[in-house]
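As a warm-up, study this chain.
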Amino acid sequence: MEKERIKKEAIERFRSSFNCSQSVLSSMAGKIETDVSFLEKVSSGFGGGMGHMQETCGAVTGSFMTISLYCGNKYPDNHERKEEAYKLIKKFDSEFKKLYDTTNCRELIGYELDSPEDHDRAVENNVFERICEKCISDSVDILCRILV
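Now compare it with the structure written out below.
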């Protein structure tokens, strides 16, 4: 199944040093008909909750960029493109929040990434595997469901 292949690719990318945003966005390259290398570059600053500020989760921002590119390629009219993107982003946000109650990285992982002690504790507690990988996988699930 295509969705399972994309989820596996996204997790593999995350485990090989790409951030959450890069992992989601670049794994969707085929679905949004965009060059993987470009997607890796454009999303490189969105990890750790946007620039490591622990605001909006990288899996979410990667999903929002995926939706924007999908609509940008699908609709030639800018007004229609934006309206469809807004609608799908709101739908994604609602579905993600049904699973996690928030899209905030700090709230999702419960550790301060810029604190060496907290980062070490997050690693010891497998936070990146337990939480980040789940957010990536669930984001791909949602995207595959809403991008038709």
